[in-house]
Structures are given as C-alpha cells and as structure tokens.
Design a protein that fits this description.
The complex is a heterodimer of chains A (about 110) and B (about 120). Chain A is mainly beta. Chain A is built from no helices and 11 strands. In chain A, the strands form 2 sheets. In chain A, strands 2, 4, 5, 9, 10 and 11 form a 6-stranded mixed sheet that branches. Chain A has a 5-stranded antiparallel sheet with strand order 1-3-8-7-6, with no helix packed on it. The radius of gyration of chain B is 13 Å and the shape is globular. In chain B, strands 2, 4, 5, 6, 9, 10 and 11 form a 7-stranded mixed sheet that branches. In chain B, strands 1-3-8-7 form a 4-stranded antiparallel sheet, with no helix packed on it. Chain B has no helices and 11 strands. The chains are: A mainly beta (about 110), B mainly beta (about 120).
Chain lengths: ~110, ~120
C-alpha cells in the first residue's frame, strides 16, 4: 500500500518557472527521498532528507520536511525542458536499518520551452 | 563505475510460463531491493536482501514469486506460472547497506514484463 500522497498529480509550466510538488505521508519515518523517473523506467535519486533535518538543497532543488505535519515539498527552480519527468517521494519507515521505501503516486511534470 | 543493470530489458511471455529476471547491483553494495511498478498499484516494495539473506520478503505478492541472491552480488527474481496481473516493470535497486544504515538507493533501468 502507498504511504505517500503527492500533489499535484500533474503540473505543466513554462521553462524558467519554478515547480513545487508536495508529499504527505502517514507514519513515522527515518528519512524521505525524492526520485525522478523518465519514460516509465529507471528511477534517479535526487535528494535524501533525514527526519531530523528541515531543509536541504542540491543545485536547483530545494526540499523541505515538516515531520509534525508529515509532509515534504520539492521545489525545482528555473525549470528546464529536461526537467520533464515524473517525480516521486518515497518514505523510509524505521525498519531495522534498511530503507524499505514506500512510494507516493508521483507528480507528472511537463516543462514547455 | 557501472550502475545497476537488469536483464532482460523487456520480456513477453505467455500466461502460465515461468520467468527469471536478473539484477546486477553496483559492486560492493550489500543491500539489494526489488520493487514492482504497475499501473494500478504504483511502485511497490517486494523484497530486501542484505548479503545473500532476505530478512524482508513481505512484499512478495504470492508464493509464485521467489528471489535469491548469490555471492552477495547477482539476484534473480523468479515468477512461476505467470498471470496477466504480473505484467509490470520490475525494478532492482542497490545500496551500500550494512545494518543500521539508511542510504539512498540506486535503481536499475527495470525489466518490463508483459504476460499475454
């Protein structure tokens, strides 16, 4: 069963605009991760944020985590056409030292030139 | 270095046949995971290996599904008597692992299984 709920399900923007995706989850977590998927195949890891962290940056990506609200957001700044993909949040519950990832349904992002 | 590789990339089989899906993790990664992505269910965890043992098989959908890992490296996911609902993309991921470590996972390109 899926733990994460993501919104929006789909997002369409112009190049140069910012894209924000949100993720909510249900149970306590060790960490939360964001992944990108192109063309329905392999997942590319973007960022991992641990439960004791509130914000993390990587290049044009900014992730926030609010454990009190059980929610996270991914911000992509100055988007490019190459950012077009599906984005998934995945939570890792405390499970004895390994990441049994539970994925959300994903947000389909389309960036138009 | 090389990433996670999976073979075959596509597999079409007839209902009732057995299939084997292979995963080669990143060298040195002790943790290996299998996931399944299907239209109706999204991305689902199937099984976790630490070395050659599988302490968590809770995601395997039925006893038709089994997996093994040998030499702490290659893993094979076997589906016996395939059914149409087994059609999905099967993704493998590896991680540096070790107990008490929660690390990012590196995914392979997946095997798209179609059961006719």
């Amino acid at each position: 069963s899926q733990q994460g709920e993501e919104d929006p399900q789909a997002l369409s923007i112009q190049e140069g605009e910012n894209a924000t995706m949100n993720c909510s989850y249900k149970t306590s977590i060790n960490n939360l991760q964001w992944y990108r998927q192109n063309s329905g195949r392999g997942l590319v890891h973007l960022i991992l944020i641990r439960s004791n962290e509130r914000e993390k940056h990587s290049g044009r990506l900014r992730v926030t985590l609010d454990t009190s609200k059980k929610s996270s957001s991914l911000l992509i700044t100055a988007s490019r056409a190459a950012d077009t993909a599906s984005y998934f949040c995945a939570t890792a519950p405390f499970s004895g030292g390994y990441n049994k990832l539970i994925f959300g349904a994903g947000t389909r992002l389309a960036v138009h030139p | 270095g090389a990433g996670v590789s999976q073979s075959p990339s596509n597999k079409v089989t007839e209902k009732g046949k057995d299939v084997e899906l292979r995963c080669d993790p990143i060298s040195g990664h002790t943790a290996l995971y299998w996931y399944r992505q299907s239209l109706g269910q999204g991305l689902e965890f199937l099984i976790y290996f630490q070395g050659n043992s599988a302490p968590d098989k809770s995601g395997l959908p039925s006893d038709r599904f089994s997996a093994e890992r040998t030499g702490g490296s290659v893993s094979t996911l076997t589906i016996q008597r395939t059914q149409q609902e087994d059609s999905a993309v099967y993704l493998c991921a590896s991680s540096p692992g070790g107990t008490r470590s929660y690390n990012e996972q590196f995914f392979g390109p997946g095997t798209r299984l179609t059961v006719l």
